[in-house]
Write a structure and sequence with these properties.
four-stranded antiparallel beta sheet; alpha+beta; six-stranded antiparallel beta sheet
């Protein structure tokens, strides 16, 4: 009875979610770095307690951290430091939030007391079978647990007492993502290194629904490309599948995160289409999430930030406000609000709704006055140019390469030749039939030559152009990465400055934390601009003081 009640409550949250979805759908989300207390900021995964959203678990490479106050403070819940073991996955029992599961390199661990104590409940035979990469808990029967390892899928219906291995899945394929149907938990989906599989009888039998690689020709490459979905075949090599999520309103609506964008199936995996990519800066999707508070959106963790896909419009929108990290690995949502959590390469982040200043009667004027307070700071254009110059990725560099390659045709190929010879000859000399001596001659020969040739055809085309094209593509990508990073840091610093100006911290500790954060962002910008930012601040400060 208890399990049924909790599942009913879980589904009610999804269907009554519009009350929470205003800020999520509009994109009015502000990320906040809540990593204070976490020693290893290289985080891989995050999980939220479904009953108490203040309790969150974040996993780094070898440690699981726990917060009881929504990220204000963190403590170690499970550590494998110095053991060689690593944390790959975390899941909270949806029917009993005291129970936590941790998938690691050396098996599956279970805690029955919110992470205070842990017991290993699964170890496979051999390293590949033991390493747990993904896990999922049946939302109706929490004794039914599924784990994906480096060599197949295992499942238990006794809470970990006994385990069975899926027999007709590839034994040598890593299982990176598992999803269970909310309405029919006997339907399970698994993303493996050898394809996308589906079971309709609780993991007993499996059917391959998609090959391991999606053909690249069906993946939209440009932001300006059409948002219309494109049909996807299943028998060509190309794109790696990484994540699966099921729409909670429509169990037949599936989303796959791949290395080249997102795929959509509207018939439970029978056919697939590529979602549009307008607004999606990075198509390398590591993890997908549907929030209970946002029925129209799909959230994607990528190497360039967090993006929201609108099911209605087919467009992507970047959720960048306050997010100083771009290397996002995993996303999690709270059941009772629109808040999202993100595990990143530089810590853990949490969203909150944007605060509106309703008391301002002349907001335009005040906005200009506030921004004028930063008139002495370098403009974003200056900082971007400094970053490009320091990274040596300015566009003129490519043009210089091309001109130099063309001028190369005017330079001749010079061939210098030199030969040296020595000769010696001896003959017997006779006179009147009598031997009178030897006639010996010798000499030296020297020969010099020089030749010049021109390949005038290289004025139109030469092989160096191919190399330049390759290097220019790499340089453009690097330039985009540099500009994206420095722009994020610049405006995150500016937003924090404005926040401190409009809402001065009440507590001294908070003020110090925010000031340190400003200094940290300044140092990050300096690292990308060869200290240009701080030098300009110092110079302008000296000019202002002299006046």
């Amino acid at each position: 009875m208890r399990s049924t009640q909790k599942l009913t409550f879980f589904l009610i949250i999804f269907f009554l979610s519009p009350v929470f979805s205003i800020n999520a759908a509009s994109g009015d989300m502000i990320w906040q770095d809540v990593s204070r207390g976490i020693k290893d900021l290289n985080l891989q995964v995050v999980a939220v307690n479904p009953d108490n959203p203040e309790i969150v678990y974040a996993g780094s490479v070898n440690t699981i951290y726990k917060t009881k106050d929504g990220g204000e403070n963190w403590e170690e819940a499970l550590s494998f430091k110095g053991t060689g073991n690593t944390v790959n996955a975390i899941a909270v029992n949806p029917l009993n939030s005291k129970i936590i599961f941790a998938g690691t390199r050396e098996g599956l661990y279970k805690s029955i007391n919110h992470g205070t104590g842990w017991t290993r409940i699964f170890t496979g035979v051999g390293e590949l079978n033991t390493a747990v990469l993904s896990l999922a808990v049946n939302p109706v029967n929490a004794e039914n647990i599924f784990i994906g390892t480096k060599a197949g899928l295992f499942w238990t219906d006794t809470g970990g007492g006994t385990w069975r291995k899926a027999q007709n899945l590839p034994n040598d394929a890593a299982v990176s993502s598992i999803a269970i149907d909310f309405f029919r938990p006997e339907i399970i989906y698994a993303v493996t290194a050898k394809g996308f599989f589906k079971s309709i009888n609780g993991a007993i039998d499996w059917k391959r629904m998609l090959e391991s690689s999606i053909p690249e020709k069906f993946i939209i490459e440009d932001d300006s490309a059409s948002n219309q979905e494109e049909s996807v075949g299943i028998n060509e090599a190309g794109t790696e599948i990484k994540s699966i999520v099921i729409n909670p309103k429509d169990a037949g609506l599936l989303y796959l995160g791949t290395s080249k964008g997102m795929l959509i199936s509207r018939d439970a995996g029978m056919t697939w289409k590529a979602a549009g990519s307008a607004g999606l800066i990075s198509r390398d999707i590591r993890h997908l999430l549907i929030s209970p508070a946002d029925r129209d959106g799909v959230y994607a963790a990528t190497g360039r930030g967090v993006f929201r896909y609108s099911v209605e419009s087919g467009n992507w929108k970047e959720l960048y406000k306050g997010l100083t990290a771009v290397d996002i690995r995993f996303l999690a949502a709270q059941n009772n609000s629109a808040a999202l959590w993100a595990a990143a390469g530089k810590g853990v982040f949490k969203t909150s709704a944007a605060v509106q200043d309703a008391a301002s009667s002349d907001s335009g004027k005040k906005s200009r006055e506030i921004l004028s307070a930063f008139a002495d700071e370098p403009a974003i254009e200056e900082v971007q140019k400094a970053a490009i110059r320091y990274a040596e990725v300015h566009p003129e560099k490519i043009e210089t390469w091309r001109k130099a390659a063309q001028k190369k045709a005017w330079l001749p190929h010079m061939t210098l030749g030199y030969t040296k010879g020595r000769d010696w000859q001896s003959s017997n000399v006779y006179s009147s039939g009598a031997y009178v001596g030897d006639d010996i001659t010798w000499g030296k020969d020297y020969d010099w030559s020089i030749a010049f040739t021109w390949e005038l055809g290289e004025l139109l085309w030469n092989n160096d152009q191919t190399s330049i094209d390759t290097r220019s593509r790499l340089m453009v990508q690097l330039r985009d990465d540099v500009l994206n990073e420095v722009t994020r840091l610049y405006f995150e610093r500016r937003r924090l400055q404005i926040e401190m100006l409009l809402s001065p911290p009440d507590e001294r500790k908070d003020g110090i934390e925010k000031e340190l954060r400003v200094q940290e962002l300044t140092a990050d910008i300096d690292a990308l601009t060869d200290f240009y930012f701080s030098k300009k601040l110092k110079n302008k400060g000296q000019v202002a003081s002299s006046k």
